[in-house]
Amino acid sequence: MVTTSRMKAAALPRPQLSSDWIICAIISASIMFDVPPSSAGGLMVATFQVAIALGAVFGGLLVDHAGVASAFAYCGIATLLAALVAVLMGPKRAG
Length: 95
Known about the structure:
Order of helices and strands: HHHH
Low-confidence stretches: none
Radius of gyration: 18 Å
């Protein structure tokens, strides 16, 4: 049987503690991209930095074009959508 890197990543345990998710993400990325964990960690840091930069750019554009109140409205809507996704996609309880 041929084992692919995606199959190996899918077999990783789910994180139990709030800080374990980053370790699982780095291990999964290193397995999927076949790179050492240190390189996968660098990829994670770069991704976070790009997300922060894009948030600043789009937030600035939103404030410039629609006003300060629109940024608060957007944050509220994004938070509600994230909570909805977390509830719908989260772990299912048996019983």
